[in-house]
């Protein structure tokens, strides 16, 4: 599987394995990310893995697009596709109707009861695939097949931080008040933004996520304790 290299400005290179996400492709992205992180090429500043590609930023005074691409090709010849188990993280979520405005619509679309949608979500095997769009937006794979719904035709504004949202096979816990076209099935008081400049987000790419159901009273208590708005 030969990746494609594309220059991004004068100090970054995009390495793409495919145009469509799959577990195999993402495993290759993460394997390359590990290889580069363990033995970074001269001039590299940062590597950012995504679903089917990764972006490498570098110092143009020390290296070039061509040199970075050559380094990457060398890594690919010895790439090991091993499964690395990330840290298990628990995220609280309340599915009360006041915090889950799209839960009924998801239930209707999937021909399930609302309780069945909730139970399916709680049973999902979620993994952090990447960060993107906004600070702390961790895209999770693992939404069970029976509750997968497409994005809405138009985004909804002012979706509050902590909203647990799903679209197709992905799930996300929002960190800011932002618009979204994903379905809101709950809300979490768990803080994803840590405030630690050395580790600003709760999750690392590759971590496993387990959702824990809480009631509205527990949500209110935890939200006040965390000052989560």
From TrEMBL:
The keyword Ubl conjugation does not apply. Pfam families: CT_C_D (PF02682). InterPro entries: CT_C_D, Cyclophilin-like_dom_sf, PxpB. Residues 3-203 form the Carboxyltransferase domain. One of its GO terms (molecular function) is ATP binding. Keywords: ATP-binding, Hydrolase, Nucleotide-binding. SMART domains: AHS1. This is Inhibitor of KinA. It comes from Litoreibacter albidus.
